[in-house]
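Self-study notes.
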Amino acid sequence: MKLNRSTDGVITVSFLLVPEYAMVALLSAIEPLRVANRFAGREVFRWQLLSEDGKPVDASNQLAISRPLALSDTALPENLFICSSFNPEKHLRMETVNWLKKAARNGCKLGAMDTGCYWLAEAGLLKGRQITLHWEAAPAFRERYPDVQLSNELFEIDNGLITCAGGTSALDMMLDIVQTELGHALAVKVCEQFIKSGIRQKSDKQRIDLAARLNVHHPRLLRVINHMENSLEQPLNSSQLAEYACLSVRQLERLFRNHLGHSPSEYYMKLRLNRARQLLRSSGMSVSEVALACGFGSCSHFTRSYKKQFENSPRDDRG
């Protein structure tokens, strides 16, 4: 995607910093622009940091970069990325959402890193567009914005909108922009400066392959686990899972015990409760809403199971 250029021909990229943003994503986005300027031998890109009130913003690592510009003290941006990470619902401000709407009407190219797409969703700017965000934040986002098309890719470019999963995916997103603006050869030179073996494509997945993540390589067992991870809201029983994998229930039980040390039902419960904890800590959903989203028919059953797993009640474990 080509970005907007200023009247002097330089591409100005603005980053709106939201409290608890991930500094690794911000620096992964800025550094490729700096190196691209160096190899191009001219100023192709410039960048600026914005905050809602012009004060330094603490990142999730409790560090802050000095002297951001206040939204009220700068012209509407030409290209803007919203930098957010933890607790996005806590930091949403309607004044900022309205400012984003105004920027979009003014022709600003918009983007988001990690959970920055919360602001775009609140501004009504995601209709008919596909986006991505960090895999850990995706369940809560889906619950709040069920109509938004969400992918699991590193970054998405759709109809003038660019989003990425945060972390080092911001580097790959910016390398793609550098490649569009300055060509493949220069983008590869920039990539090599960061000791990267290659430019990841947007279609690359965020998470480590399931087999590598679990150190499990039995194809039918992996098929069942993948099905479990995608069916947390309406969990299946062991007979249904065994049928899905073309196994007997006894064979399925043996595979889980041998490779994972749990029965299928125990492992499934662990997945559902981990998802519940994630939703409790990263969304404004009520305990009953979280229970339903994780396949529990009653709050009492959910609370008992949660206490057994984490030694805390769901209410005590909110972020």
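Second protein, same conventions, sequence then structure:
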Amino acid sequence: MSVVITGANGKLGTLIIKELLTRLPAEQIIACVRQPDSAQSIAAQGIGVRFCDYDQPESLSVAFAGADKLMFISSSHHDDTVRLSQHERIIEAAKKAQVQHILYTSFAYVERGSISLTQMHLSTERAIAASGIPYTFLRNALYTDFVGALGLNSAIAEGEMVVYPGALKFNTVTREDLALGIAAVLSESGHEGMSYELTASQLWTFDELVEVLSIHTGKRIALRQDNQIQNWIFGFLNKIDTSSTSTDLEKIMGRPVTSLKDSIQRILEEANGS
């Protein structure tokens, strides 16, 4: 079996490869990257490295040649119209390369979103389904580290986190958990035609977040709601489904997702260079 991974040296791609190496021989894994020179650490593990640029269609079919499974990690471009065009090129190249199974990192409960991001993912899913290639949609929840946009350092320093009024609840997960689940799907058979909602099975709230921050910092962090707060993240959060849950990821991983407490501890450690 040959597994080809696009965006292989990105944050999620790197973690997927780490997990795959515990399940598959290195020679069965091929990493596709835009800058092969930056993937020396991947190549050093015995993994094949191929040039792959979403904006250079001629590179794609060559990169995907011989792929039994193509792990298609969505583009990171900031413009969703550009992203969709890139995705269409990848799907066409996968058809030309006669890829046997395409797995795509989509967005959790994508039909319920009302922004260009969710529409882009939904359009990509439909294009993949229309291609005739057997597929699996890996609908990733929002990463828990989105909390960095809330100003954690300021909240800790000032003893107060300020959020927009509302009763938001969150189904977020860590990249590490997603990578473990995705690697399991990639290394197994029987997932064709499936769409997995890769979310937490239990929700958390801002009240729980400040409680966890208080525990980790040893100081009380209060929560205050303010409808005058200017932060793009709240508009974004209100236009996606952050509160629907699924047990898909836990079943695939064979364990519970990482808790909010442990996730925040890791985020704080990384922020402090620990």
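Instructor comment on the second fold: Strands lie at 3-5, 29-33, 48-51, 69-72, 102-107, 135-140, 160-163, 194-198, 222-225.
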